[in-house]
Structure to design on (891 residues):
């Protein structure tokens, strides 16, 4: 496996930084009034300006040409409109950035815009200096340099390939090699998106049951009331909706491997039934009276801390010890160093092939952004990002404009929203609260716990900051 | 707590329907689940709900419910007072107003109940216009609910009365309604005849909005009949009528139809542009989340058919978010059905969870039976593609049974053909 080369090639962008920035200004229903001065500044700021009086006209213009920037005046329902614009610009030719303009932008709107990857939120009437700063940021994006993607060797095809050579992954490979040849039950642990199913499939493929089926069950995805019949099967008429006899996943996996993903999401009652199946090596279909013998290799996975779940009484200790005969802990993507570039190269080629494209390089700025991202969703998140980039790429280089807005918003060195200075204490606090709320999926109780304040205090602050 | 667990603690009582809606609309995805292996299968049942969040939002919801019920009570009292004053026409107007309120919030059966009371009163009046108006409202609700035969009867009666009373607008609306009934039942010749009749009537009156609507319907009809060139011509004329009127929602519907037409013509680029412009028109008037979701679903179908699965899924997920926050449960049912279909195309058997969720929603919210039939139909095809012939047959038979009970013969025939293909 080769390392990525750092030699530079021709600039990745087909545009030169001195070219005029193509701007589409959308006046909203109020007409061009709020943006009148734009026309006067256009030549001086090297802007090619086009005007759309309303959203339908703007949509037509967006579809008909390449734009660098959209200046949109938001009305009374600014939050909703902002979301609409972000949606509308996703996939628009040229990946234009958005500057939202509002009469009195609230801090809530600014924070929301930041989260959505909007380039900036500016107050009306528009000030020349504020616009010039934003345009400088748009122009800086055209100086990207292509970095060729390294070759990647994988021992499996496509979706389930294990890619990486970081020390953390080499430890995983060694452990996998040791357990693959046995029939021992394996527990794979790791954060969401670290590749637990890929590991399980690889163990199966290299194990004694490789000729048998690999059957995966996602315990978190299946409604609780259906999980038992999904695992053990059911007889016709066993319950409403049991329209025909169903062979469960245990039986389907007979002679092969059953992979139980997100096992911590299972109810205690079902955990007891799994334990019985593992111990007795037999199952009973729902509505059926006869025990059915099954021989399967079991691999389980979870992103939760099972020891904590046991302590909280949410997971059976006896089942844990049955499952964790061998435990494999997968590293987070941010702990895998240069594996990131190898994974990017692997996914870029995979999706280039799927979408009939040729992708050979990644721009230096795009790589910088990808390196700085936190990757909460680990490899799965990276895969999504590269797939999206491959879809919208128009030449052989993936650039920042092909990355999601949320990622582009993390561009290092982006000036603070407050012109020329540091944020105020209130702004910093509001921003931090917004981040924690995003982290907890908007759950106020959980956010208050993280912040270490009472939920009433948090609710008050949210109201105060317009969050 | 997961929504599926929270729903199990809520009795299925009509008085608690707004609380059920609140529970669903305040559900949020757990970020860990979003990126976990369960993320691609996330449905509303697997979202989280926080009791504290519900407590915070109960007040505003109760205020809306109180306002709604208050308006219904007032409408009833107004009707009583009008009757007492000897003004039955005003009483009919009040009852119709109550029905419209119910219709506006998607309570079709309740709206129908108000309209029936209004109709009984209107039938006794010498002036037939209130009766025509009520019959048109009854027809509209029946059409939305999938009760086509009954809807057809209401529209037929409205037409007879409107023509007898020289009520031009009433006659046009009745013809459009009858065309709609025939269209839904795939009776293309009948639909053509009714829309053409409406067109002749409206051309005489020069009503641009109605003319645009009829051209739109004729465009949809021509597309169903396979005459795509004629469909394009009708849709072009519809746009010419509606754009100068700045009729946002009507324009959005026409552009949505244009997108579907372009997709049928194998022109995904213009189709996507038409859908995106349609979404822009939706924003021009008061936002209609139902229409927004419909357009997004068509855009997602286009992306699905062109193999752009990631974008298709993203569009569906945006629609899902909108459907949840705006309480558009019928939209949610369609979204989950399409997500299940997407997983079927990907050969992913776990996609069955979307169909199960869609069926659970249909039952929990007592939606129109036609929605459930469509879910079973798609579920059957999914099971067929994932190698479950017994279950596929059972689901298709269930779909056929519901379509048959609704008198949608074309759908019955289509499902029968699917069943025969399964046997072969």
């Amino acid at each position: 496996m080769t390392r990525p080369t750092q030699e530079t090639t021709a600039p990745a962008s087909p545009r030169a930084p001195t070219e005029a920035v193509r701007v589409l200004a959308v006046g909203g229903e109020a007409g061009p009034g709020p943006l009148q001065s734009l026309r006067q500044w256009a030549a001086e700021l090297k802007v090619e300006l086009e005007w759309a009086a309303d959203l339908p006209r703007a949509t037509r213009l967006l579809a008909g040409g390449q734009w660098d920037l959209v200046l949109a005046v938001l009305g009374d329902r600014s939050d909703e409109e902002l979301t609409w614009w972000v949606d509308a610009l996703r996939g628009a030719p040229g990946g234009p950035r958005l500057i939202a303009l509002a009469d009195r932008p609230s801090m809530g709107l600014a924070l929301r815009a930041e989260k959505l990857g909007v380039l900036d939120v500016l107050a009306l009437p528009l000030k020349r200096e504020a616009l010039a700063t934003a345009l400088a940021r748009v122009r800086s994006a055209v100086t990207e340099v292509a970095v060729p993607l390294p070759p990647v060797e994988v021992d499996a095809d496509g979706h389930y390939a294990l890619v990486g050579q970081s020390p953390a992954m080499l430890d995983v490979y060694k452990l996998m090699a040791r357990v693959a040849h046995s029939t021992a039950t394996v527990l794979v642990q790791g954060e969401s998106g670290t590749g637990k199913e890929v590991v399980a499939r690889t163990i199966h493929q290299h194990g004694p049951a490789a000729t048998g089926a690999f059957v995966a069950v996602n315990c978190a995805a299946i409604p609780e009331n259906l999980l038992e019949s999904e695992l053990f099967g059911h007889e016709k008429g066993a319950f409403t909706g049991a329209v025909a006899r169903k062979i469960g996943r245990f039986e389907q996996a007979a002679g092969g491997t059953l992979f139980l993903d997100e096992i911590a999401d299972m109810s205690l009652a079902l955990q007891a039934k799994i334990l019985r199946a593992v111990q007795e090596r037999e199952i009973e279909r729902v509505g059926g009276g006869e025990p059915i013998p099954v021989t399967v290799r079991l691999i389980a996975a979870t992103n939760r801390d099972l020891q904590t779940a046991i302590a909280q009484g949410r997971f059976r200790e006896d089942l844990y010890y049955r499952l964790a005969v061998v435990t494999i802990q997968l590293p987070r993507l941010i702990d895998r160093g240069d594996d990131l570039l190898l994974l990017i190269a692997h996914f870029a080629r995979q999706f280039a092939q799927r979408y009939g494209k040729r992708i050979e390089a990644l721009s230096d700025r795009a790589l910088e952004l990808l390196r700085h991202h936190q990757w909460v969703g680990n490899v799965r998140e990276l895969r999504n990002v590269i797939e999206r980039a491959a879809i919208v790429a128009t030449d052989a280089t993936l650039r920042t404009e092909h990355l999601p807005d949320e990622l582009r918003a993390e561009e290092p060195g982006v000036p603070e929203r407050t012109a020329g200075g540091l944020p105020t204490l209130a702004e910093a606090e509001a921003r931090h609260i917004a981040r924690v709320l995003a982290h907890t999926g908007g759950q106020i109780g959980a956010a208050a716990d993280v912040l270490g304040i009472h939920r009433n205090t948090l609710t008050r602050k949210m109201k105060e900051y317009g969050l | 707590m997961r929504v599926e667990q929270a729903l199990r603690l809520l009795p299925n009582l009509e008085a608690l329907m707004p609380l059920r809606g609140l529970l669903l609309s305040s559900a949020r995805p757990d970020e860990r689940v979003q990126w976990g292996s369960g993320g691609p299968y996330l449905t509303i049942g697997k979202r989280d709900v926080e009791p504290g969040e519900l407590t915070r939002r109960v007040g505003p919801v109760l205020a809306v419910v109180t306002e709604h019920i208050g308006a219904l009570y007032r409408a009833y009292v107004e009707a009583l007072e009008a009757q007492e004053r000897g003004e039955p026409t005003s009483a009919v107007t009040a009852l119709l107003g109550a029905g419209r309120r119910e219709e506006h919030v998607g309570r079709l059966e309740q709206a129908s109940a108000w309209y029936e009371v209004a109709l009984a009163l209107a039938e006794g009046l010498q002036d037939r216009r209130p009766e025509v108006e009520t019959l048109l409202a009854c027809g509209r609700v029946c059409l939305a609910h999938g009760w086509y035969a009954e809807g057809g009867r209401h529209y037929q009666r409205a037409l007879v009365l409107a023509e007898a009373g020289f009520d031009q607008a009433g006659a046009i609306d009745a013809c459009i309604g009858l065309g709609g009934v025939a269209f839904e039942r795939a009776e293309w010749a009948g639909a053509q005849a009714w829309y053409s009749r409406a067109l002749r009537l409206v051309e005489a009156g020069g009503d641009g909005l109605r003319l645009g609507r009829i051209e739109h319907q004729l465009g949809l009809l021509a597309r169903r009949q396979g005459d795509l060139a004629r469909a394009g011509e009708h849709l072009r004329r519809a746009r010419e009528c509606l754009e100068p009127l700045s009729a946002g929602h009507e324009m959005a519907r026409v552009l949505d139809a244009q997108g579907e037409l372009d997709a049928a013509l194998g022109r995904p680029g213009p189709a996507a542009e038409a859908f995106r412009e349609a979404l822009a028109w939706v924003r021009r008037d008061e936002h209609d989340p139902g229409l927004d979701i419909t357009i997004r679903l068509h855009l997602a179908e286009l992306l699905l058919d062109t193999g752009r699965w990631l974008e298709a899924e993203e569009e569906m997920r945006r629609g899902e978010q909108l459907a949840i926050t705006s309480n558009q449960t019928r939209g949610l049912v369609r979204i989950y059905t399409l997500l299940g279909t997407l997983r079927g195309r990907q050969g992913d058997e776990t996609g069955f969870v979307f169909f199960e969720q869609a069926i659970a929603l249909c039952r929990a919210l007592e939606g129109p039976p036609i929605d459930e039939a469509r879910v079973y139909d798609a579920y059957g095809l999914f099971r067929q593609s994932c190698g479950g012939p017994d279950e596929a047959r059972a689901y298709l038979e269930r779909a056929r049974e519901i379509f048959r009970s609704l008198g949608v013969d074309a759908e019955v025939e289509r499902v029968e053909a699917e069943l025969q293909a399964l046997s072969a």
Observations:
- Confidence is low (pLDDT under 50) at residues 1-14, 413-421 of chain A.
- The first strand of chain A starts at residue 21 and ends at 26.
- The longest helix of chain A spans residues 339-354.
- DSSP finds 19 helices and 17 strands in chain A.
